[in-house]
Structure to design on (327 residues):
Protein backbone atom coordinates (compact mmCIF):
# COMPACT_ATOMS: atom_id res chain seq x y z
CA UNK A 1 0.00 0.00 0.00
CA UNK A 2 1.36 3.41 -0.96
CA UNK A 3 1.42 6.51 1.22
CA UNK A 4 -0.31 9.89 0.88
CA UNK A 5 2.18 11.63 3.15
CA UNK A 6 4.11 11.11 6.38
CA UNK A 7 3.32 7.41 6.60
CA UNK A 8 -0.44 7.79 6.08
CA UNK A 9 -1.61 4.80 3.99
CA UNK A 10 -3.39 5.56 0.74
CA UNK A 11 -6.35 3.39 -0.14
CA UNK A 12 -6.04 2.56 -3.84
CA UNK A 13 -8.63 1.67 -6.45
CA UNK A 14 -7.23 -1.86 -6.45
CA UNK A 15 -7.99 -2.10 -2.71
CA UNK A 16 -11.63 -1.13 -3.30
CA UNK A 17 -11.99 -3.64 -6.12
CA UNK A 18 -10.45 -6.36 -3.94
CA UNK A 19 -12.91 -5.50 -1.15
CA UNK A 20 -15.79 -5.86 -3.61
CA UNK A 21 -14.62 -9.38 -4.45
CA UNK A 22 -14.47 -10.33 -0.76
CA UNK A 23 -17.88 -9.01 0.24
CA UNK A 24 -20.00 -9.36 -2.91
CA UNK A 25 -21.86 -12.47 -1.73
CA UNK A 26 -22.78 -10.93 1.62
CA UNK A 27 -24.13 -7.51 0.61
CA UNK A 28 -27.01 -6.18 -1.45
CA UNK A 29 -26.07 -4.40 -4.65
CA UNK A 30 -28.33 -1.48 -3.85
CA UNK A 31 -30.27 0.33 -6.58
CA UNK A 32 -29.42 3.71 -8.03
CA UNK A 33 -32.74 5.31 -8.94
CA UNK A 34 -33.70 8.48 -10.74
CA UNK A 35 -36.08 10.41 -8.48
CA UNK A 36 -38.70 12.56 -10.19
CA UNK A 37 -39.49 14.22 -6.86
CA UNK A 38 -35.86 15.01 -6.06
CA UNK A 39 -35.38 16.21 -9.62
CA UNK A 40 -38.23 18.71 -9.29
CA UNK A 41 -37.09 19.87 -5.85
CA UNK A 42 -33.51 20.43 -6.97
CA UNK A 43 -34.34 21.64 -10.49
CA UNK A 44 -31.76 19.20 -11.82
CA UNK A 45 -31.18 15.55 -12.59
CA UNK A 46 -30.89 13.69 -9.28
CA UNK A 47 -30.33 10.01 -8.62
CA UNK A 48 -30.52 8.40 -5.18
CA UNK A 49 -28.14 5.61 -4.16
CA UNK A 50 -30.32 3.59 -1.80
CA UNK A 51 -27.97 2.28 0.88
CA UNK A 52 -30.93 2.48 3.26
CA UNK A 53 -31.90 -0.82 1.58
CA UNK A 54 -28.55 -2.41 2.43
CA UNK A 55 -28.29 -5.26 4.93
CA UNK A 56 -28.63 -3.80 8.46
CA UNK A 57 -30.17 -0.70 6.84
CA UNK A 58 -26.87 1.09 6.27
CA UNK A 59 -23.72 1.17 4.14
CA UNK A 60 -21.63 0.37 7.22
CA UNK A 61 -21.93 -3.38 6.68
CA UNK A 62 -19.72 -3.04 3.59
CA UNK A 63 -16.76 -1.73 5.55
CA UNK A 64 -17.28 -4.13 8.44
CA UNK A 65 -17.35 -7.15 6.13
CA UNK A 66 -14.33 -5.85 4.23
CA UNK A 67 -12.36 -5.52 7.44
CA UNK A 68 -13.46 -8.80 8.97
CA UNK A 69 -12.72 -10.76 5.79
CA UNK A 70 -9.22 -9.25 5.75
CA UNK A 71 -8.45 -10.62 9.24
CA UNK A 72 -6.70 -13.87 10.03
CA UNK A 73 -8.80 -16.74 11.43
CA UNK A 74 -7.14 -16.22 14.81
CA UNK A 75 -8.02 -12.51 14.85
CA UNK A 76 -11.64 -13.33 14.04
CA UNK A 77 -11.98 -15.99 16.69
CA UNK A 78 -10.90 -13.58 19.44
CA UNK A 79 -14.23 -11.81 18.98
CA UNK A 80 -14.96 -8.29 17.79
CA UNK A 81 -15.41 -5.02 19.63
CA UNK A 82 -16.28 -1.58 18.31
CA UNK A 83 -17.58 1.81 19.37
CA UNK A 84 -20.55 3.15 17.46
CA UNK A 85 -23.56 5.44 17.45
CA UNK A 86 -25.36 2.39 16.08
CA UNK A 87 -24.81 1.82 12.37
CA UNK A 88 -21.15 0.75 12.49
CA UNK A 89 -22.09 -1.56 15.33
CA UNK A 90 -24.82 -3.08 13.19
CA UNK A 91 -22.31 -3.76 10.43
CA UNK A 92 -19.83 -5.38 12.79
CA UNK A 93 -22.60 -7.37 14.49
CA UNK A 94 -23.83 -8.66 11.14
CA UNK A 95 -20.32 -9.64 10.02
CA UNK A 96 -19.69 -11.34 13.36
CA UNK A 97 -22.97 -13.25 13.19
CA UNK A 98 -22.05 -14.56 9.76
CA UNK A 99 -18.81 -15.92 11.19
CA UNK A 100 -20.31 -17.12 14.45
CA UNK A 101 -18.00 -15.03 16.65
CA UNK A 102 -18.67 -12.84 19.65
CA UNK A 103 -19.37 -9.14 19.13
CA UNK A 104 -19.37 -6.33 21.69
CA UNK A 105 -20.66 -2.88 20.71
CA UNK A 106 -20.09 0.20 22.88
CA UNK A 107 -22.88 2.75 22.41
CA UNK A 108 -23.34 6.19 23.98
CA UNK A 109 -25.87 6.30 26.80
CA UNK A 110 -28.22 8.37 24.65
CA UNK A 111 -28.06 5.89 21.76
CA UNK A 112 -30.88 5.50 19.25
CA UNK A 113 -33.18 2.87 20.85
CA UNK A 114 -34.20 1.50 17.45
CA UNK A 115 -30.58 0.80 16.55
CA UNK A 116 -29.96 -0.71 19.98
CA UNK A 117 -32.86 -3.10 19.45
CA UNK A 118 -31.51 -4.12 16.03
CA UNK A 119 -28.08 -4.79 17.53
CA UNK A 120 -29.52 -7.14 20.12
CA UNK A 121 -31.49 -8.96 17.43
CA UNK A 122 -28.16 -9.66 15.70
CA UNK A 123 -26.80 -11.16 18.91
CA UNK A 124 -24.39 -8.38 19.87
CA UNK A 125 -23.53 -7.61 23.48
CA UNK A 126 -24.35 -3.93 23.96
CA UNK A 127 -22.56 -1.72 26.48
CA UNK A 128 -23.83 1.84 26.97
CA UNK A 129 -21.05 4.09 28.15
CA UNK A 130 -20.51 7.86 28.16
CA UNK A 131 -22.14 10.46 25.96
CA UNK A 132 -19.65 11.10 23.14
CA UNK A 133 -18.03 9.06 20.39
CA UNK A 134 -14.58 9.72 21.86
CA UNK A 135 -15.52 8.27 25.23
CA UNK A 136 -17.13 5.25 23.59
CA UNK A 137 -14.00 4.66 21.53
CA UNK A 138 -11.82 4.82 24.63
CA UNK A 139 -14.02 2.20 26.27
CA UNK A 140 -13.83 -0.05 23.20
CA UNK A 141 -10.03 0.34 23.22
CA UNK A 142 -9.95 -0.72 26.88
CA UNK A 143 -12.11 -3.78 26.22
CA UNK A 144 -9.91 -4.79 23.31
CA UNK A 145 -6.78 -4.54 25.44
CA UNK A 146 -8.27 -6.30 28.47
CA UNK A 147 -10.18 -9.09 26.68
CA UNK A 148 -8.11 -9.52 23.56
CA UNK A 149 -11.01 -8.79 21.20
CA UNK A 150 -10.17 -7.50 17.74
CA UNK A 151 -10.97 -3.78 17.53
CA UNK A 152 -12.81 -2.48 14.47
CA UNK A 153 -12.55 1.30 14.13
CA UNK A 154 -15.66 2.97 12.68
CA UNK A 155 -13.95 5.01 9.95
CA UNK A 156 -10.14 5.16 10.13
CA UNK A 157 -9.10 1.75 8.82
CA UNK A 158 -7.84 1.15 5.24
CA UNK A 159 -9.71 -2.16 4.79
CA UNK A 160 -12.91 -0.59 6.09
CA UNK A 161 -12.52 2.44 3.81
CA UNK A 162 -12.00 0.12 0.86
CA UNK A 163 -15.26 -1.65 1.71
CA UNK A 164 -17.18 1.61 1.87
CA UNK A 165 -15.69 2.53 -1.49
CA UNK A 166 -17.64 -0.28 -3.15
CA UNK A 167 -20.60 2.13 -3.08
CA UNK A 168 -18.65 4.31 -5.51
CA UNK A 169 -17.87 1.40 -7.82
CA UNK A 170 -21.57 0.64 -8.09
CA UNK A 171 -22.45 4.27 -8.78
CA UNK A 172 -20.02 4.38 -11.71
CA UNK A 173 -21.16 1.02 -13.02
CA UNK A 174 -24.77 2.22 -13.11
CA UNK A 175 -24.21 5.86 -14.08
CA UNK A 176 -20.76 6.32 -15.68
CA UNK A 177 -21.65 9.84 -16.81
CA UNK A 178 -22.29 11.08 -13.24
CA UNK A 179 -20.99 14.60 -12.67
CA UNK A 180 -21.51 15.09 -8.92
CA UNK A 181 -21.79 12.79 -5.90
CA UNK A 182 -22.97 13.99 -2.48
CA UNK A 183 -21.84 11.99 0.56
CA UNK A 184 -22.64 12.53 4.27
CA UNK A 185 -19.61 12.70 6.57
CA UNK A 186 -19.28 11.63 10.18
CA UNK A 187 -15.70 10.47 10.63
CA UNK A 188 -15.12 10.26 6.89
CA UNK A 189 -14.84 6.56 6.07
CA UNK A 190 -17.61 6.53 3.47
CA UNK A 191 -16.50 9.60 1.54
CA UNK A 192 -12.86 8.47 1.63
CA UNK A 193 -13.74 5.19 -0.05
CA UNK A 194 -16.25 6.61 -2.53
CA UNK A 195 -13.84 9.37 -3.54
CA UNK A 196 -11.07 6.90 -4.31
CA UNK A 197 -13.39 4.62 -6.28
CA UNK A 198 -14.80 7.43 -8.41
CA UNK A 199 -11.97 9.95 -8.77
CA UNK A 200 -9.41 7.30 -9.75
CA UNK A 201 -11.67 6.29 -12.65
CA UNK A 202 -13.45 9.54 -13.47
CA UNK A 203 -11.34 12.47 -12.21
CA UNK A 204 -13.74 15.13 -13.47
CA UNK A 205 -16.63 13.91 -11.30
CA UNK A 206 -17.03 16.26 -8.36
CA UNK A 207 -17.31 14.74 -4.88
CA UNK A 208 -19.04 16.86 -2.23
CA UNK A 209 -19.10 16.04 1.46
CA UNK A 210 -21.97 17.11 3.71
CA UNK A 211 -21.87 17.70 7.47
CA UNK A 212 -24.24 19.18 10.06
CA UNK A 213 -23.37 22.72 11.10
CA UNK A 214 -22.61 21.70 14.67
CA UNK A 215 -20.81 18.44 13.83
CA UNK A 216 -18.35 19.85 11.31
CA UNK A 217 -15.00 18.23 12.14
CA UNK A 218 -14.01 17.57 8.51
CA UNK A 219 -15.11 21.03 7.36
CA UNK A 220 -13.01 22.57 10.13
CA UNK A 221 -10.03 20.35 9.33
CA UNK A 222 -10.06 21.47 5.69
CA UNK A 223 -10.12 25.13 6.75
CA UNK A 224 -7.28 24.73 9.25
CA UNK A 225 -5.21 22.28 7.25
CA UNK A 226 -5.06 19.76 10.08
CA UNK A 227 -7.20 17.37 12.06
CA UNK A 228 -9.47 19.29 14.45
CA UNK A 229 -11.18 17.99 17.59
CA UNK A 230 -14.49 19.70 18.34
CA UNK A 231 -15.32 20.63 21.93
CA UNK A 232 -19.02 19.96 21.39
CA UNK A 233 -21.15 18.15 18.82
CA UNK A 234 -24.89 18.76 18.44
CA UNK A 235 -27.00 17.28 15.67
CA UNK A 236 -30.14 15.24 15.04
CA UNK A 237 -28.04 13.07 12.71
CA UNK A 238 -26.54 10.70 15.28
CA UNK A 239 -24.60 8.83 12.60
CA UNK A 240 -22.71 12.03 11.74
CA UNK A 241 -21.94 13.10 15.31
CA UNK A 242 -18.18 12.61 15.19
CA UNK A 243 -16.15 15.17 17.10
CA UNK A 244 -12.97 14.41 15.15
CA UNK A 245 -11.81 12.84 11.92
CA UNK A 246 -8.53 10.96 11.63
CA UNK A 247 -5.47 11.64 9.48
CA UNK A 248 -6.21 8.90 6.97
CA UNK A 249 -9.72 10.24 6.26
CA UNK A 250 -8.60 13.86 6.25
CA UNK A 251 -5.80 13.06 3.79
CA UNK A 252 -8.16 11.33 1.34
CA UNK A 253 -10.71 14.14 1.55
CA UNK A 254 -7.98 16.72 0.97
CA UNK A 255 -6.82 14.84 -2.11
CA UNK A 256 -10.12 13.98 -3.76
CA UNK A 257 -13.07 16.01 -2.43
CA UNK A 258 -14.17 19.42 -3.76
CA UNK A 259 -15.35 20.70 -0.38
CA UNK A 260 -17.63 19.98 2.58
CA UNK A 261 -21.04 21.65 2.66
CA UNK A 262 -22.60 22.49 6.01
CA UNK A 263 -26.34 22.09 6.57
CA UNK A 264 -28.61 22.86 9.51
CA UNK A 265 -30.50 20.22 11.45
CA UNK A 266 -33.69 21.79 10.16
CA UNK A 267 -32.53 21.34 6.57
CA UNK A 268 -31.69 17.69 7.31
CA UNK A 269 -35.13 17.05 8.80
CA UNK A 270 -36.85 18.88 5.96
CA UNK A 271 -35.00 16.68 3.48
CA UNK A 272 -35.82 13.51 5.43
CA UNK A 273 -39.53 14.34 5.41
CA UNK A 274 -39.46 15.38 1.75
CA UNK A 275 -37.79 12.11 0.73
CA UNK A 276 -40.33 10.10 2.72
CA UNK A 277 -43.42 11.94 1.56
CA UNK A 278 -42.52 12.67 -2.07
CA UNK A 279 -39.78 10.25 -3.13
CA UNK A 280 -41.16 7.40 -0.96
CA UNK A 281 -37.69 6.79 0.49
CA UNK A 282 -37.31 6.25 4.24
CA UNK A 283 -33.93 7.48 5.47
CA UNK A 284 -32.61 8.49 8.87
CA UNK A 285 -31.32 12.04 9.35
CA UNK A 286 -27.75 10.99 8.48
CA UNK A 287 -28.99 9.56 5.20
CA UNK A 288 -30.99 12.67 4.34
CA UNK A 289 -28.00 14.98 4.89
CA UNK A 290 -26.63 14.28 1.41
CA UNK A 291 -29.79 15.59 -0.26
CA UNK A 292 -29.83 18.60 2.07
CA UNK A 293 -26.27 19.31 0.99
CA UNK A 294 -27.17 19.00 -2.67
CA UNK A 295 -29.95 21.56 -2.24
CA UNK A 296 -27.65 23.90 -0.31
CA UNK A 297 -24.80 23.84 -2.83
CA UNK A 298 -24.72 27.08 -4.80
CA UNK A 299 -22.13 25.50 -7.14
CA UNK A 300 -24.38 22.56 -8.02
CA UNK A 301 -24.45 21.62 -11.68
CA UNK A 302 -24.88 18.52 -13.77
CA UNK A 303 -26.05 14.96 -13.22
CA UNK A 304 -26.00 14.31 -9.46
CA UNK A 305 -26.13 11.35 -7.08
CA UNK A 306 -27.05 11.70 -3.41
CA UNK A 307 -25.98 8.75 -1.27
CA UNK A 308 -28.80 7.68 1.06
CA UNK A 309 -26.40 6.23 3.63
CA UNK A 310 -28.87 4.65 6.05
CA UNK A 311 -32.50 4.10 6.96
CA UNK A 312 -32.48 3.01 10.59
CA UNK A 313 -35.32 5.15 11.88
CA UNK A 314 -38.93 4.41 12.68
CA UNK A 315 -42.06 6.53 12.42
CA UNK A 316 -42.22 7.19 16.15
CA UNK A 317 -38.70 8.64 16.06
CA UNK A 318 -39.54 10.76 13.04
CA UNK A 319 -42.56 12.18 14.84
CA UNK A 320 -40.40 12.92 17.90
CA UNK A 321 -37.79 14.70 15.80
CA UNK A 322 -40.48 16.78 14.13
CA UNK A 323 -41.82 17.88 17.51
CA UNK A 324 -38.38 18.78 18.82
CA UNK A 325 -37.60 20.89 15.74
CA UNK A 326 -41.11 22.30 15.43
CA UNK A 327 -41.64 21.04 11.89
Amino acid sequence: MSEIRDGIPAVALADVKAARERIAKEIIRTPLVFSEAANRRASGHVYLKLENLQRTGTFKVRGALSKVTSLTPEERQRGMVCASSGNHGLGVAYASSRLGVRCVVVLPQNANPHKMSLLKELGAEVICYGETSDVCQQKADEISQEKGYTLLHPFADPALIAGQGTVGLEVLDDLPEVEEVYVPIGGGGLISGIAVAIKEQRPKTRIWGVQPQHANSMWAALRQGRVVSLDEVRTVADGLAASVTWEINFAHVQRYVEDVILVSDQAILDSMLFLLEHAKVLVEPSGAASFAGLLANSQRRGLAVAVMSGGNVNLRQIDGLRQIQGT
Notes: The mean pLDDT is 94. The chain has two domains: 3-59+158-325, 60-151. The longest helix spans residues 133-147. The chain is about 45% helix and 15% strand.
